[in-house]
Structure formats: C-alpha cells, structure tokens
Design goal:
Keywords: ATP-binding, Ligase, Magnesium, Metal-binding, Nucleotide-binding, Tricarboxylic acid cycle
Catalytic activity: succinate + ATP + CoA = succinyl-CoA + ADP + phosphate; GTP + succinate + CoA = succinyl-CoA + GDP + phosphate; (S)-malate + ATP + CoA = (S)-malyl-CoA + ADP + phosphate
Bound molecules: adenosine-5'-diphosphate, magnesium ion
Cofactor: Mg(2+)
Helix content: 25-40%
Distance between the termini: 40 Å
CATH topology of the largest domain: Rossmann fold
InterPro entries: ATP-grasp (IPR011761), ATP-grasp_succ-CoA_synth-type (IPR013650), ATP_grasp_subdomain_1 (IPR013815), Succ-CoA_synthase_bsu_CS (IPR017866), SUCC_ACL_C (IPR005811), Succ_CoA_ligase-like_bsu (IPR005809), Succinyl-CoA_synth-like (IPR016102)
Subunit structure: Heterotetramer of two alpha and two beta subunits.
Largest sheet: 6 strands, antiparallel
CATH superfamily of the largest domain: Succinyl-CoA synthetase domains
CATH architecture of the largest domain: 3-Layer(aba) Sandwich
CATH class of the largest domain: Alpha Beta
Length: 397
C-alpha cells in the first residue's frame, strides 16, 4: 500500500526526522490560508499523487499552466494561484503512464535552500532477506538512469537484522555522500531514525529523493515516497487509515476487496488462473504466441464461486480485454467451482469476447459438464499451449 508524500512526511516527523513544515489542501479556497500559516519567503506547491517524477511531469490540460507538479512560488498569493491551477487537473509523469493521475490534493510546503541533493532509499532486499540502504550523490533525478549510466555513484548495503542498525551504517552513507564534520553525526542519527520507522511500520520501501544538504549544514528530507507491506497492514490501523482508494486502479481495488491477487496490465488477453506460478506461465505463453496479457490474476487455492464470479467480472470490465483465457489446474481448487463462477459471471455481465477454457485436475469432468451444458460460447482447450494458441488465434485471427 502506498501513501502520499504529505502523509509520509508526517510519519517521518513523528520519528524525529527533519522535514519541512507544510499543509495539505483539497480545495483551492483553502490554499491561501494554508500558505499563510507558513513562514516563507519561498512556498513550494506540490501535487499529491501516488507517483514520482512530479517535478518533471506535465499537465494534460492547458489551463493548469506550463509547469510540472512541483512549483516554487514567492508569495502566499502566488502559492494559492498555483494550487488552484493544479487541483482537479491530470498530471502525467514517467511513473503514471500516459493516462496520468488526477490531482485531488496539494501540499504547500516551506521552501528550503538547497546546497546538494542526494538520493536515499531503504528497501527490502529479497536476495539477502535484509533491509538495504541505497544512496547516491546523484539525487533529485531518475535513479534508474544513474544506475544504468554511472552505477559507481550508487552505494548499496544491507543491515543484518540480528544486530540491527549500527552507527557505522550511517557513517557509510555519510562518507558516500561526501558529508563532513557534524553532518556525519546528523546523518548517522537520521539513518537510524529512518531504519526504526521502516521496521516498526512494516515498510516495503522508503525513498527520500532528494535528501538535501542545506547551506547551514543541516540535512532535510525534501521528498518522501513510502510503500507498506500489505500483509502487515492488519497490525497498523493508523497506516491503513491513510489509504487513498482514489489513487488505486479501480479493478485492483475491487480485486483487493475479494482478496484476489490481481494486477492490471496493458495487453488484450484477460487471464483467470489459479496459482501464482501457473499465472506467470500463462502470461509467458500468451506472449510466446504473439499476444500480451491484460492482467495477472491468481484466484488462489480455496476460491469460492463468488470469488471466481467477481474475478471474471473484473476481467470483463476491462475495455482492453479482447479475449479471455481461463486456465485452471485444480488441486485444492476444484474445477467445478471455477466453472460455476464463470457461468454465473457471464449470466450477470454477458460475454462480448471469445473465451477459451482449459480445465484440468480435481472434478474436471464435473467442471467441463457445467461449462458444456451452460449454453456459453466457449472454446475448450486441452492443455496450456493449446489454450494459449486458441485464444490468441481467436483474438488476432
Ligand atoms: P518529484 O520527485 O515527484 O519530482 P520532489 O518532491 O522530489 O518531487 O520535488 C522535485 C524537486 O523540487 C526537488 O528535487 C527539489 O529540487 C524541489 N523541491 C521540492 N520540495 C522543495 C522544497 N520544500 N523546497 C525547495 N525545493 C523543493
Ligand atoms: Mg522526488
């Protein structure tokens, strides 16, 4: 689960990390009062969407102004004016995809003097199963670009969870960033606080880009992007309350309500599969036959008819879907339950695109019978490659 920058900064503030004072607003009328509560002389107006690259992004609408989603202003009036221009408009960044994201919230923040911008992130390294620090002197820009062109400018190391965070970890970061004197101590302190927040709040990712050094020698977290481990949210009611459902893909949101593992993709073949491994293999083989999957969907092992029905409805609600491949290898999942779900969903929402069904495993005969006697226009398939070939042929001709 992701949260907004202003929410992430509130958490960091609670942990004693240096962040700027700021106010979040959802209405243009509130902007002037909010900006007036800040000291100035620089007010930074920042679009709050669940995507990075806002500064270099651009708005779809002409009346949102020429600038991106992070604007420096020199007066309360100007800050309110820029907030008004951005609210309700669609911001496109390299992380939003071409459709962009609607800006429903603006964060107005005290501007900082910047001496240098650094990159810093904490994340879970799945290779070592430890929390890793990643830092670079090349902050404020695209870290993927830095990793590709000048990987020597990135330092990454992981922290042994048994020993936990130690001052030498912070010193490694400080020396990589070229800090000196009291800045090193401040860095050691800040890294410790970030690590503590990361562990205690079950974060998955914590990215500060940029972490800045100011002319007075102090450090500050100027941007904050935080993602939480969805499996741990049950023990963080305070974090769950920060969820902004308007930022989520409506199909993924519906899927999460039914506990389905669903990720929307850009292709044309909708897939309904049980098991993450089989879902991956199904996506691969669709590609092999020359088409692209419209989603990843694992209905899980013990799915009910209702869950399967919902999954099918989510797939058919996607306008990009030109054909559907149901690929089930029933072990714990029973083929008849899948068949009942598919039939129920089609009865409810209809079927406008070709449907290929491949069933194998527990109760397969019963499942096939349900499909065959349902009157649905289904193309039956014998195995995985047969199914993929048939659906791609049905869609592409
Ligand atoms: P994004 O990463 O989405 O583009 P950032 O919060 O990193 O958004 O802002 C982009 C750039 O804007 C930063 O690299 C920094 O140069 C500038 N900036 C952001 N917040 C402030 C601030 N409070 N004071 C001064 N400059 C800022
Ligand atoms: Mg940033």
């Amino acid at each position: 689960m992701n949260i907004h920058e202003y929410q992430a900064k509130a958490i960091l503030r609670d942990y004693g990390c240096p962040v700027s004072d700021g106010r979040a607003v959802t209405k243009a009328e509130e902007a002037k009062t909010a900006a007036g509560e800040l000291d100035g002389p620089l007010w930074v107006v920042k679009a709050q969407i669940h995507a990075g690259g806002r500064g270099k992004g651009s708005f779809k609408e002409a009346d949102a102004g020429e600038k991106g989603g992070v604007r420096l202003t020199k007066s309360v009036e100007e800050a309110a004016e820029e907030a008004k221009k951005m609210l309700g408009r669609t911001l496109v960044t390299h992380q939003t995809g071409p459709a962009g994201k609607q800006v429903n919230r603006i964060y107005i923040e005290d501007g900082s003097d910047i001496e240098s911008e650094f990159y810093l992130a904490l994340l879970v390294d799945r290779v070592t199963s430890q929390i890793s620090f990643v830092c670079s002197t090349e902050g404020g820009m695209d870290i993927e670009e830095v990793a590709a062109s000048t990987p020597e400018k990135i330092l990454s190391f992981s922290v042994d969870p048994a020993a936990g965070y130690q001052p030498y970890h912070g010193r490694r970061v400080a020396f990589m960033l070229g800090l000196e004197g009291k800045q090193v101590k401040a860095c050691v302190d800040l890294m410790g606080k970030l690590y503590k927040a990361f562990v205690e709040k079950d974060m998955e990712m914590l990215e500060i880009n940029p972490l800045i050094l100011m002319p007075d020698g102090n450090l500050k977290c100027l941007d904050a992007k935080v993602g939480f481990d969805g499996n741990a949210l049950y023990r963080h009611a305070d974090i769950l309350a920060l969820r902004d459902e308007t930022e989520e893909d409506p199909k993924e949101l519906a899927a999460s309500k039914y506990d389905l593992n669903y990720i929307a993709l850009d292709g044309e073949i909708g897939c309904m599969v049980n098991g993450a491994g089989l879902a991956m293999a199904t996506m691969d083989i669709i590609k092999l036959y020359g088409a692209e999957p419209a989603n990843f969907l694992d209905v899980g092992g013990g799915a009910t008819k209702e869950k399967v029905t919902e999954a099918f409805k989510i797939i058919t609600s996607d306008d990009n879907v030109k054909g559907i491949l149901v690929n089930i290898f029933g072990g714990i999942m029973r083929c008849d339950v899948i068949a009942e779900g598919v039939v129920a969903a089609v009865k409810e929402v209809g079927l406008q695109v070709p449907l290929v069904v491949r069933l194998e495993g527990t109760n397969v005969e019963k499942g096939k019978e349900i499909i065959n006697t349902s009157g649905l226009n289904v193309i039956a398939a014998d195995d995985l490659s047969d199914g993929a070939e048939k659906i791609v042929k049905a869609v592409k001709g």
